[in-house]
Amino acid sequence: MVAQSNDVIPLVASGLSVKFGGLLALNELNIEVRRGEVLGLIGPNGSGKTTFFNVISGIYAASAGKVLLDGQDITTLKPYQIAAHGLARTFQRSRLCLSLSVFDNLMLGAVRRLNSGLWYNLLRRDRLAVDVRSAAEEARDLLAVFNPDLAGKLWEPAISLGMIDRRRLEICRALIGRPKIVLLDEPSAGMTHDETNQLMNEILEVRQNLGNLTIVIVEHEMGLIERATDRCVVLNYGKKICEGKYADIAADPLVREAYLGKS
Amino acid sequence: MSSIAQYLLNGLMQGTIYGLVAIGFTIFFGVMNVIKFSHGDVLTFGAFGGLVAAWVATALGFPIWLELVFVIVAAVMASAVIGAVIAQGLVLPLKDAPPLNMLLMTMMVGTAIRECIRLFFPNGTNPQKFPELLPSGGFDLSGIYFRYDGLILIAAGIAFIFLVQWIINRTRLGLAIRAVAEDGETARTMGINFTLTVVIAFAIGSMTAGVAGALYGLYYSEINYGMGLILAIIGFSAAIVGGLGNIWGAIIGGYLFAGLQTAVVAFLPALSDYKNVIALIVVVALIAWRPTGLLAERGSERV
Amino acid sequence: MTMISMKGTAGQIISSILVTVFLAGSLIAILEIEDQRELGICVAVIAVLSFIMPRLGILRSAEQAGAHHPWAVRSIILIGFFSVLLILRDNNFALLMIATILIYATVCLGITIQTGYAGLFNFAGAAFLGTGGYTAAMLGNVTWLPDAVTIILGGIIAAALGTLLILPVLRTRGHYAALTTLAFGVLFNGFLEANELLGGPQGLKVPGIQMFGWDFSNDLAIGSYTFSFYANYVLLIGAIFAVFMMFTRFVERSWIGIWLDAVRLDEIAASVFGLKVSVWKSFAFIAGNFLAGVMGAVYAKMTAFIAPANFTFGDSLLLVAIVLLGGIGNRWGVLIATMIVILLPEKLQFIQEYRLLLFSCVIIMLLMVRPAGLLARRVRVFEELR
Amino acid sequence: MRDSKGYAWRIGVSVLALMAVANVDDAFAKEKVKIAFVGPLTGAISQHGIGGRNSAELAVKLKNADPATKYEYELVTLDDECKPNVAVQVVTKIASDNSIIAAIPHYCSAAAIATVDIFHRFKLPMVIWAAVLPEITYAKKVPEIHRVSGTLIGQNRVGAQFMKERGYKTFVSFADSTDYGKSMNKYFTEFTKENKNEILGSFAVPPDQQDVSAELTKIKELNPQVIYFGGLTPLGARVRTQMEKLGITAQLEGNSGIMGDAFISAVGPELAEGTLTFFDSPPLSKMPGGKFFSENYTKAGYTQAPEAYGPFAFAATNLVMEEIERVGPNRAKITEALGKIKDRQSIIGPITFDDYGQNITPLTTKYVVQDGKWTIWDESEYATGKRKLKNLP
Predict the structure, then answer these.
(1) What is the model's pTM?
(2) With the CA atoms of A113, A118, A123 and A124 taken in that order, what torsion angle do they form, in degrees rounded to the nearest 10?
């Protein structure tokens, strides 16, 4: 893997456009995500936030422009190749494997770090047992940060968890692979105000343990954006209309117009 | 040259029957996302219904044209009834079961229908003579032998295809069926009676099989209890190649499959018994090239 | 019915003994009883017992035993297997049926890996079974080739033939995938019927198995007991079945098991987290076809004859029915469902031509009553590795 | 439509009968002897299997009704689905059941070939009632194997000669792609070439193919005088009807596979008129026991016709029971006794087994359809010239 030099900007989208039939979902987007920062990505519904995540993670193909991850061009790579470069994400509508256990769902997040060799998995059962034990330990610790009794349900099927615990599981799934960049797609959806705050604290705490992980977060909860992000980018109809600290963009007339419509 | 046209005529007739069967598959898939594999045997059931109607008609001394109408109506009604019964009794209860369960269940229903006809229809195993109700003979046009009944049946088949097309796309009932196909829950909230629409859709889909069964009997003047399985496999392939959920796709798929079969025999007679093998190879190749059929199925997966 | 406390090692061992005795006993009873009335009573008793057993928690603790004391349970199963063999040693037909059940169960393990784990529909199981069989038939007169190699080659060629289908299988989903394999199954059968080289519809004779210097068509004498020659096949097939049961368990209880499930449940999520979906689907498809090919070769050598009529679309349907009825993804469910699906038509011989009708009605009823199958698959728990 | 309750009544009675048989304690009855019948009772050609089964059952019923017999016979019936692996399974079952003394197996040749070795291995004597493939008996000398039905060599030899005498020159062969069809085609080609006639082309289609108009269009191009059909009734009926639809006026020459009233009722008397075929036995009415057989068959209430090979199943079952009466219910003795059968009278005429166990006496009879019935050629108006075959040169 490319040695991670500090001066290279982790994630750069330049002139990025995506067309669905006639609809221009993303329009010449230029976004840079600096190392170790928490970048907020905000904008009204349908402004292209999730589409941006889907293009970066390789699910949708870009119609024009380029995406660089750690200086490498990942525009045309498939999702599993991009994941190998250390990018992880959560989904707006949770995509957990509900019939699998909590542990299995977490392990999916750690694919990069686990040995998938046939020989190893089928014949080196003793070594595998050790691996599973340490993985279970690590999973428990990570879950404990978010919710101690969630850590006790390692072998329960994901379907038995409540909505919020499922959201926490999905976030842990993204974090357990020790990615370089995490894309969080509306982590607070469906949560009350204080639940969102508590969740954000847990995310920031884990971020410390993982050594200043770079996070891009899509959110509607403005309080959370204000408290957690270093910088923000505002999208509207697939275009970047504003960038900067939360305080500055909040005051920007263009942003207010995008959200509230012409006054 | 003349035999080329003759092949074309044969291919057209086969294509019409495959198209009608494929339409049924597309409707079931559209409405309930289900592959009803008993569809071929519903066709056989319709054909036998028509045969019984023919016996009754001759017993009552109906004139030919009345007997013809009576046979087609009986075939259509027989298939519609059994199609609706299968929908109500077996498909709807298994609505939420995994697709594999539904697929296997419909295959077993097909087997059960086949066995019932074989065992309980008098001399069910033997091929049955289907009465010749259309004017026989034909006329020669520059070497090509056009049969009256062949032409009439192709026209009737195509007419029915347009009728179903019209029902689905132009009537309120068609609108309800398409709404249910698009999104069952929303259709329900819009006040559409989900169960009734599904059952009616299955009945219409089965009617196409009934017509195909009657046409089959009239064209080949012979039907047998086992003809449904191979027609189901071909109809299913045609519907898939055309793109499931798309009526025109099913029709094109049907004619494509018939064309393939006829072409193999016409141009490669030595390989005539590999006819189905070659046609299926092309089907698999097409699917590899266009995994959701020629006319792409409804929208790709939402992320 | 409160759960009798079957906790603790003793309770678990007892339960696994009970389960094994019950399975072995009902198999022997069904195979030996010919009279319809007695058979009816016996089936009723089995049905009642299999209804009560889970209620008493015996099944649950037997499963616990399997997880915590695997070797103890394996030896119990082995003892059960040999005692069945001993009791039925001179009943040729019973041994042939046991061998057939074990063959179909192993093939269904392969289909469980494909459909149960990776979520690939395979309606061409019989075609791969046939590939193995025809490989054994073609290599039959190559005398210098040891039979063990022929059987393995059967599997390899079936897997290789499967790779022709990889592209359409990988690119399609749901009903489209079902069509690809279904078309291949019908096509394979059509090809065999028309092809002269492979003996056409008339079929081919296949020599029996000679392994470890022992001709399998000789009766087997162990100690003072003489076994019918089919016992040789039951032992060989039993061994292969055991190996592949362990193989399937190791696949399921490993990282690979999780990857396959993830590929089945949500391809996009699996890919986003770094799984190359095509690799894992191909692994499952090839592994399943290999199993079918190996057992196809053994089945052809055992029945000493092979013809296209054995590998029709209906036979592929049978394999899918077994995997579904057993409880998709559940290895032990597959074995029990195979017993039912293979023995039922045989035992219904007395109603002759109504056999197929009753068989299809039974399957429909089972699908309606227990859509999840006889033994639904449990959530994967690694605790024995803890 | 005939009342289907007839069926329900028949099933009810047979189930009750089965139950009764299982219960009756036969303190004083004669010793029970079991013989097995195997045939295709499910699948596309099950009408032939059921016809054979009914005829075998009838033979057992009549034998048991005769007080003079030493034993009481019980017929164990099994369905081989016309599939080799199922045939192996059911034959292993009856072969390893020592209470079964002899067997009357197989309508399908693929099934028969698959089980020859099993009958030999378990020393179970058997008499094949239908499968006509020569290799079943002539492949190798196996003492347990016998066959009452002729091989398909005889009917093709006689057929080719007969067509030569009529003056036909050009032929096309249309067979099904099963072993039966391929073997028919092989001997047809052999004997037609022997008679120096010309074969313009040969076609093979799977037996379940519904539409043969493409192949027939090709044949119409070749314009042969005669179309030889090597296959069974279902496909034969389709070929004949679709020939008419395409305006093909060639003369149809059939084989034992389309013998029987199923073919005539499927194509209708007008289309069947003039169809030639060659069959290794005189018609039912002409058979020595023909009338006796058909009377008892209808009296026994069977709704499914005996079909062409029903009488053969009856004769084979009777033969086995006669030998058991003579030498007693012992497999080895029966095998030996069957081997020595010479000119044994039966309803299908005299039966003589050569040392391969093949019945060599069946005389191939020439048939033509006249007014909706299979009639012997010499007694038909075609022989006297009042009616003309098609395409006569």
Answers:
(1) 0.87
(2) -20
